[in-house]
């Protein structure tokens, strides 16, 4: 049976997560419009659950609006089992939005299960009326041969939403001014409100990628300067491809970096990020390859995709 999935939005990590889920579980995904009120989202969610053929036995929600909508799905749909999957939402940390969510969530029906990609999400979203699981993000390890570097030209890559909380402005400020002389360029892939800001020399905005994994496979270095994260898919994908990365000390990235797969930097500190970038730019091709291989090995041993797939099948009712 196909599981109904409601998502507040299908950007970034949620889209990548559902793409991986769909490889092993039949799902029917619906995105709630961002341009409507919360009440309109609740009505839309009810309509989707009623009109998706036979009444679904389970609905899995991703995001605040989808979770609240499912909790207020109405008596006719109370038999539908609700699972909430939480990835993290930095926009939700505003006190007014926090109060609104808490009030609405408590007045609705608690889900049967909550799934969190990282334990730091528990204080934000955990409902003590239901059980929970921690399911860290991972991706399949890829078969990759040699590093992509040819000659002395090297490319660092940012892949994600071009917005403040992803550390884009920090990265532009931190990018070493002598990078071109060192033979390094920076490509930023994605879309968002910071996609039109002036770029320093050697930095290029590439737009939204059609194949994110291909972008990462061509990178010599991946940069993840986020203010806050859980288990960023870009880091997992870089490791799966054997690519080293510079990442801020947030979410799972400190654990990833214990493998020796890259360099750590403090979040929201361009000076610290620049120091990490300078060190990474000074690494030889062999050193970059060794760090990438260390991350790939760590991911295979500590985040096996087969175990994640088994857990996902249970969560989605298969």
What does this structure look like?
The termini are close together. This protein folds into 2 domains: 3-138 and 305-315, Glycogen Phosphorylase B (Rossmann fold), CATH 3.40.50.2000; 154-302, Rossmann fold, CATH 3.40.50. The mean pLDDT is 90. With 318 residues, the chain is an alpha/beta fold. It is built from 13 helices and 12 strands. The chain has helices at residues 12-21, 38-51, 64-71, 95-107, 122-125, 168-174, 179-182, 212-217, 233-240, 253-257, 270-281, 285-302, 305-315, and strands at residues 3-7, 27-31, 58-62, 81-86, 113-116, 131-134, 154-159, 184-189, 203-207, 221-224, 245-248, 262-265. Helix 9 (233-240) links the parallel strand 10 and strand 11. The chain has a 6-stranded parallel β-sheet with strand order 2-1-3-4-5-6, sandwiched between helices. Helix content is 38%, strand content 18%.
Total helical segments:
13
Give, in spatial order, the strands making up the sheet with the most strands: 2-1-3-4-5-6
Computed CA radius of gyration, to the nearest angstrom: 21 Å
Extract low-pLDDT stretches: none
Mean pLDDT: 90
* Backbone shape: elongated
Give the CATH level 1 class of the largest domain. Alpha Beta
- Here the CATH topology of the largest domain equals Rossmann fold
Run of helices and strands: EHEHEHEHEHEEHHEEHEHEHEHHH
User: For the report, how would you describe the main beta sheet?
Assistant: 6 strands, parallel
Q: Class by helix and strand content?
A: alpha/beta
CATH structural architecture of the largest domain:
3-Layer(aba) Sandwich
Domain count, please report it: 2
Q: Per DSSP, what share of the residues sits in E-state strands of 2 or more residues?
A: 15-25%
* CATH homology-level superfamily of the largest domain: Glycogen Phosphorylase B
Quote the distance from N terminus to C terminus: 8 Å
Q: Total number of β-strand segments?
A: 12
Helix share, percent = 25-40%
């Amino acid at each position: 049976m196909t599981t109904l999935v409601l998502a507040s939005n299908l950007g970034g990590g949620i889209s990548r997560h559902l793409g991986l889920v769909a490889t092993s579980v039949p799902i029917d995904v619906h995105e709630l419009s961002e341009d409507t009120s919360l009440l309109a989202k609740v009505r839309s969610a009810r309509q989707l659950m009623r009109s998706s053929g036979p009444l679904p036995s389970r609905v899995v929600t991703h995001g605040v609006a989808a979770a609240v909508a499912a909790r207020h799905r109405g008596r006719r749909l109370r038999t539908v089992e609700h699972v909430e999957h939480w990835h993290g939402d930095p926009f939700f940390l505003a006190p007014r939005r926090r109060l609104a969510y808490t009030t609405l969530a408590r007045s609705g029906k608690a889900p049967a299960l909550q799934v969190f990609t990282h334990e730091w999400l528990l204080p934000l979203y955990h409902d003590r009326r239901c059980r929970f699981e921690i399911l860290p993000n991972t991706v399949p390890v890829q078969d990759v041969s040699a590093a992509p570097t040819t000659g002395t030209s090297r490319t660092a890559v940012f892949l994600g939403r071009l917005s403040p909380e992803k550390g884009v402005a920090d990265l532009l400020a931190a990018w070493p001014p002598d990078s071109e002389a060192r033979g390094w360029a920076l490509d930023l892939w994605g879309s968002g409100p910071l996609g039109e800001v002036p770029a320093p020399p050697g930095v290029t905005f590439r737009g939204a990628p059609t194949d994110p994994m291909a972008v990462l496979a061509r990178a010599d270095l991946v940069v993840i300067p986020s203010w806050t994260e859980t288990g960023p898919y870009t880091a997992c994908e870089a490791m799966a491809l054997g690519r080293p990365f510079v990442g801020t000390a947030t979410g799972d990235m400190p654990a990833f970096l214990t493998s020796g797969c890259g360099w750590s930097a403090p979040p929201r500190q361009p000076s610290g990020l620049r120091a990490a970038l300078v060190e990474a730019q000074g690494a030889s091709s062999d050193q970059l390859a060794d760090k990438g291989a260390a991350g790939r090995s760590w991911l295979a041993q500590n985040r096996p995709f087969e175990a994640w797939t088994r857990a996902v099948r249970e969560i989605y009712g298969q």
